[in-house]
């Protein structure tokens, strides 16, 4: 090992500079700052859609800080949990504010993450060489859903209790292991004190650590391959004499100032919700969750929080009658692959066998609709991870794709929002049919993407990024 070398500074150097040099000699603080932000070169044509990554990090910090203060007074005990939340709201100084910051922050987290994912969808940020960036981000999304689900039980209100009961019971639909798996998750035969304790442990300790690790991996992978941009062009292909991309600028101070402006606007809107509409009409905090959990009284309508409802609608749409539509859909999709795919005969044969097994499994005598509802529920989330391999478009960015591609994306957003709304409503026959149509459209968007993403007349992609200074 080499000898320790200490940075020599002039005797009249500022104290702060000397302190930083002392730290840098022992820990790469300046190097980490420069590599990850200070001298990280990002494309100069970022737009407002690129704010949501920074906002996600901001809300994550907000949730951790407010969560720490909440745990100081919260009691993870079935007999005391609801009362401890009321104590925080009514007796702890500024406790109501911390609680509302945390509950509103949960919804804000999903809003900015959904918008962050929408930006990736529009500009092809998941395409080569950023597949791992997308997968790490998807891992964050999965853990965020689990974190929200575990945290949702902690207030021990009516909707918390019965929502957990319904979701955990879904695992019972899995053949052979379902009942044992549900029992293992609950820690009891019903949602009880044991369930609350293990959910508290996952929400407060386990999942935040996993999320922080995935965030570090997400950022490391991003800075290794470089950020995408609205044109979908690799800026690293055109380097200047200094070795930096010609179409990139240092993140600090250029994007620091833009992010600070975005943070200011976000905090203004966020504060307005916290102070004037923390329940957001029952979407952020439901009326039934202000009532203590009662295992003897089932709410008339059990629905998860709004950020789960698009996927929950897929689950509810899977009825016994809908299974026949799904069987026809699987048969048509396999036939479509045989006619349109250029894959080898062996691959097509394997796909046909898998399709046949799926159709047989969907027969009511084999596996019931509840099981396939759980499968579609999980698949509707997991299929998002496959985007890097489903999108075969010659152009990464939506800017240079055929104009009608935008209508497909717009229809997908409409379908997703409609599913989310339907998940909050009572399942009437009309709403059930609409949710089934939207479910088919949702999966068609992804499963047919290898074909429709290559169709149409594409606009020429420029070799350098397009940028208008302002």
Topology (SSEs and partners):
Elements: H1 15-24, H2 29-38, E1 41-43, H3 52-71, H4 81-90, H5 95-123, H6 131-153, H7 158-170, H8 178-186, H9 193-225, E2 248-250, H10 251-276, H11 309-317, H12 320-340, H13 345-361, H14 369-382, H15 387-390, H16 403-422, H17 429-447, H18 449-452
Antiparallel strand pairs: 1-2
Helix pairs in contact: 3-5, 4-5, 5-6, 5-10, 6-7, 6-9, 11-14, 11-16, 11-17, 12-13, 16-17
Question: In brief, what are we looking at here?
Answer:
With 470 residues, the protein is an all-alpha fold. The protein is built from 18 helices and two strands.
Model description:
Helices cover 62% and strands 1% of the residues. It contains 18 helices and two strands. It has helices spanning 15-24, 29-38, 52-71, 81-90, 95-123, 131-153, 158-170, 178-186, 193-225, 251-276, 309-317, 320-340, 345-361, 369-382, 387-390, 403-422, 429-447, 449-452; strands at residues 41-43, 248-250. A two-stranded antiparallel ribbon has the order 1-2. Helix 3 runs antiparallel to helix 5 (95-123). Heme b b562 binds at residues 102, 203. It comes from Massilia timonae CCUG 45783. Keywords: Electron transport, Heme, Iron, Membrane, Metal-binding, Respiratory chain, Transmembrane, Transmembrane helix, Transport. Residues 241-463 form the Cytochrome b/b6 C-terminal region profile domain.
Distance between the termini: 51 Å
* Strands, total number: 2
N-to-C SSE string, H for helix and E for strand: HHEHHHHHHHEHHHHHHHHH
- Strand order of the biggest β-sheet: 1-2
Protein name: Cytochrome b
GO molecular function, one term: quinol-cytochrome-c reductase activity
Subcellular location: Membrane
Main location: membrane
């Amino acid at each position: 090992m080499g000898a320790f070398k200490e940075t020599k500074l002039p005797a009249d150097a500022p104290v702060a500079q000397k302190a930083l040099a002392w730290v840098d000699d022992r820990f790469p603080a300046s190097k980490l700052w420069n590599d990850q932000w200070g001298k990280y070169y990002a494309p100069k044509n970022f737009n407002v859609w690129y704010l949501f990554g920074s906002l996600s990090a901001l809300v994550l910090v907000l949730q951790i800080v407010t969560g720490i203060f909440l745990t100081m007074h919260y009691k993870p005990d079935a007999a005391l949990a609801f009362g401890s939340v009321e104590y925080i709201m009514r007796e702890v100084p500024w406790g109501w504010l911390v609680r509302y910051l945390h509950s509103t922050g949960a919804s804000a987290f999903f809003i900015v993450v959904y918008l962050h994912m929408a930006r990736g969808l529009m500009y092809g940020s998941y395409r080569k060489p950023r597949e791992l960036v997308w997968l790490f981000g998807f891992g964050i999304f999965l853990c965020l859903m689990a974190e929200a689900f575990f945290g949702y039980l902690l207030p021990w209100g009516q909707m918390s209790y019965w929502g957990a009961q319904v979701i955990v019971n879904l695992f019972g639909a899995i053949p052979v292991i379902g009942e044992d798996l549900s029992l293992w998750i609950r820690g009891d035969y019903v949602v009880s004190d044991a369930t609350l304790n293990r959910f508290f442990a996952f929400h407060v300790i386990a999942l935040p650590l996993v999320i922080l690790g995935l965030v570090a991996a997400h950022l490391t992978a991003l800075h290794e391959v470089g950020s995408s941009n609205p044109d979908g062009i690799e800026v690293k292909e055109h380097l200047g004499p200094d070795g930096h991309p010609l179409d990139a600028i240092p993140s600090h101070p250029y994007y620091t100032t833009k992010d600070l402006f975005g943070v200011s606007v976000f905090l203004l809107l966020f504060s307005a919700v916290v102070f004037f509409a923390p329940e957001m009409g029952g979407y952020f905090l439901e009326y039934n969750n202000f009532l203590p959990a009662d295992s003897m009284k089932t709410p008339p309508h059990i629905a998860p929080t709004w950020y789960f409802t698009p996927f929950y609608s897929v689950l509810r749409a899977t009825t016994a009658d809908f299974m026949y539509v799904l069987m026809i859909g699987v048969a048509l999709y396999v036939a479509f692959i045989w006619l349109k795919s250029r894959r080898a005969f062996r691959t097509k044969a394997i796909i046909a066998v898998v399709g046949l097994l799926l159709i047989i499994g969907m027969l009511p005598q084999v596996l019931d609709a509840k099981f396939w509802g759980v499968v579609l529920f999980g698949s509707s989330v997991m299929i998002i991870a496959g985007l890097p391999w489903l999108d075969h478009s010659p152009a990464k960015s939506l800017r240079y794709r055929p104009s009608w591609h935008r209508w497909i994306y717009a229809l997908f957003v409409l379908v997703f929002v409609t599913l989310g709304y339907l998940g909050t409503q009572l399942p009437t026959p009309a709403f059930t049919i609409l949710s089934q149509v939207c479910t088919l459209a949702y999966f068609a968007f992804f499963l047919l993407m290898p074909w429709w993403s290559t169709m149409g007349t594409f606009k020429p992609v420029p070799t350098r990024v397009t940028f208008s200074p302002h």
